[in-house]
Amino acid sequence: MDYVTFIKEIKEKVEELVQENLEDCTVFVHDIIKNNNVRMRAISIERKNDMATPNIYLNDYYSQFKKGRNIDDISKEIFEVYLDSSKGLINEVNINDLRNFSKVKKRIFYKLVNYNMNREMLKTTPHVRVLDLAIVFYILVSYREGAQAVTMIRDSNIKEWGIDLSRLCVTAYENTWTKYPPVIRRMEDIISEMILDSIVGDERDEDNDDGDLIKEETCYGGYTYAQVEDMVKEEMEKVKLDRNMEMYVMTNEDKSNGAACILYPGVLKKFADKVGQDIYIIPSSIHEVILIPAMGWDTKEIDEMIREVNRTQLDPVEILSDHVYVYKRETEELGY
């Protein structure tokens, strides 16, 4: 079965589930143009008067189908994903609010995207170019824990609102800096947490983690969580000493579109002053960047490493840039 036929059958099956369980709903398949001009086919279930509905992407499901998963099972999961995603989703903006700047201005934020990879989208989108990046703006329409629905702000929006780009920038900057404060953590601390999660899983008791034993199913039977945590941290400190380099990860508290933190006022300066050096900024994704105290490395080699990771390891939607950036401590300038 080819992809087109697969999508047709999935749509029909989901429509059957919707008709049996819901009222006033429409199922439709459409293309979503995501960041970096990545086009993805998605299925959506739209209830009457809904402002936002989850887009459930079909490419991975098709891969599962080719490996033997049946259509009925996939259709049921899609329907359950929709129900789960819709549960607790709070709409803060309705369709009429979008026409009134005063009603949406507190919901306007900004993020960073790659300029060249989004040229087509930027033709009709207000933006500010920064190096090889662009600041773009969006409205947070609805949210729930771990998920949010947004709508990009277009030139037609600010024209209807009667505002200019400068007013949009001021509004978005203030909102973003307030709602999404920056978080900078040591790389080894993040890796330690990942290792602990893989060892302990759900065995940790958040309310009482200093005395409970880890179950024997793990290879650390007989040790408390705190003891395992200390062992992992000791090993990570050894790794840090071996490579003689400090690495930090910067994102925001939401861990979404956190690369925008590099433009927050005073954030890079404060960090550079803390480490006493210029800073290399590696754009690991649109959601986070890696900060490294400058050590006189060849930035061309770092660029090659970034390009390799972007092409082989990273979801194309999440690529921010192929370049390392340098923050000059003395001049407070951000550049290549």
Q: In words, what does this structure look like?
A:
α1 (3-21) crosses α3 and α8 runs antiparallel to α9. The strands form three sheets. Strands 9-10-12-11-13-14 form a six-stranded antiparallel sheet. It has eleven helices and 14 strands. 38% of the residues lie in helices and 24% in strands. The protein is an alpha+beta fold. It is globular. The protein has helices at residues 3-21, 59-66, 71-86, 101-104, 119-122, 155-161, 165-179, 187-200, 225-243, 267-275, 299-312; strands at 25-34, 38-47, 56-57, 90-91, 108-114, 127-130, 133-144, 147-152, 182-186, 248-252, 279-282, 289-293, 325-328, 333-335.
Keywords:
alpha+beta, 24% strand, six-stranded antiparallel β-sheet, 38% helix, 14 strands, globular
Rounded mean pLDDT score: 86
Order of helices and strands: HEEEHHEHEHEEEHHEHHEHEEHEE
Helix fraction by DSSP (H/I, runs of at least 4):
25-40%
Structural class: alpha+beta
Write a compact overview of the structure shown:
The chain is built from 11 helices and 14 strands. The longest helix has 19 residues, at 3-21. The chain has helices at residues 3-21, 59-66, 71-86, 101-104, 119-122, 155-161, 165-179, 187-200, 225-243, 267-275, 299-312, and strands at 25-34, 38-47, 56-57, 90-91, 108-114, 127-130, 133-144, 147-152, 182-186, 248-252, 279-282, 289-293, 325-328, 333-335.
Helices and strands in order:
Blueprint: H1 3-21, E1 25-34, E2 38-47, E3 56-57, H2 59-66, H3 71-86, E4 90-91, H4 101-104, E5 108-114, H5 119-122, E6 127-130, E7 133-144, E8 147-152, H6 155-161, H7 165-179, E9 182-186, H8 187-200, H9 225-243, E10 248-252, H10 267-275, E11 279-282, E12 289-293, H11 299-312, E13 325-328, E14 333-335
Antiparallel strand pairs: 1-2, 2-3, 4-7, 5-7, 6-7, 7-8, 9-10, 10-12, 11-12, 11-13, 13-14
Helix pairs in contact: 1-3, 8-9
